Amino acid sequence: MLIASFYDGVEIHRGNKFIAVKFVVPHRVISTCRVNGGITDSLEMVFNHQVCEPSDHFPPVQKLAIDEPSAYMEKICSIYKLSHNSASLSTAANMNCASIQRMEFRKLEVVAICTAGVEGNAGCAGDPANIYEENGQFRPVEETETKSCGTINVIACINKPLIPGAMVRSVITATEAKAAALRELNVNSRYSSNLATGTGTDQLAIASMLTGEKPLTGAGKHTKLGELIGKTVKKAVKEALSYQCKLTPENQRSLIIHLERFGTDRETAKKEIVKCLPEEKAKLFEDNFAAIDRDPLSVAGVAALVHLFDKLHWGILPETCTKDVFVTHGAHLAAAVSGKYECVPLYRDKLSELHLTCDNDSFLRVVYKSLAIGFEEKWD
What we know:
Elements: E1 2-6, E2 10-15, E3 18-23, E4 27-31, E5 38-40, E6 45-50, H1 60-67, H2 69-80, E7 86-91, E8 99-105, E9 108-116, E10 122-123, E11 131-134, E12 137-140, E13 152-158, H3 164-184, E14 198-199, E15 203-209, H4 224-245, H5 255-259, H6 266-275, H7 279-287, H8 289-293, H9 296-314, H10 322-338, H11 344-351, H12 360-378
Parallel strand pairs: 6-7, 13-15
Antiparallel strand pairs: 1-2, 2-3, 3-6, 4-5, 4-15, 8-9, 9-13, 10-14, 11-12
Helix pairs in contact: 1-2, 3-4, 6-7, 6-12, 9-10, 10-11, 10-12
């Protein structure tokens, strides 16, 4: 089904489990695709295909896509009657949750088509890897639990020709835009205490129309083309995530979501906070934890501590300041929960009794204790 067309150069078709970008006129394409990938001027289309469900679904076609990409490409093109002269992106995301964004400046136009999921394998560049490729085969580095799927796939189309160097630069700009979208959504890495910059299976294709006019030579952030790529891709990634997994700024307003990347979860946090409370307050806290988790000022207090812990971890703040930073801003978190900002000095004194170092355990301990102090004082 034809769902959109742009600049008399591309048509976007959606069918059963795929979205295809068909080139009405020739385009130069740069892509991460394992078949027909790299830079080429001869493709007829680029398509995005859903190979499985997002969780606990491993059909034969998914294994084929990983182990025998050429055979997978042949099979999918035959099933859906797509051109074999194509590049293919694969994902677990629903094609009905795709976002299509378009922006223009004067005679320049950029279109971004994105599907996205980050639930299982969001990560930060440089996180520990779990797969090693040798002799054409992917093998686990060590026996670990397999993460559920998550992939951000982007196809961007440009109505102007680009020199090869600018094509490569457009990949950098689009990738930075994706990372910026995840940063604004506070997406945690599943493999470290970092914020995510993408997932382990992200794929990208960028197509520029071969018009015969003088090609553009720049696609970085100082160029208008780079700006359009950045804006369309970032907007498409954020909208696709909102459609696919309800990942929105409002839904990310949570104490626990901010703390997960440091090695905790909802039940663990609740249990550790309760340990810091007297018995008569513990049950009340447990019954009202959901409201505290979503309270804007409490989330702000935790977010401030998270931000400062990152600065300590990165060395921007000296490690010798760790206890002062934790105690001072933990006291403000306690006041955000209790509503009694005049008690900040008292809360600071209570937190100063903790032994604190610059590690995840100490950080979580001061957060738990601050939340408990604030809740204990709230109704006194």
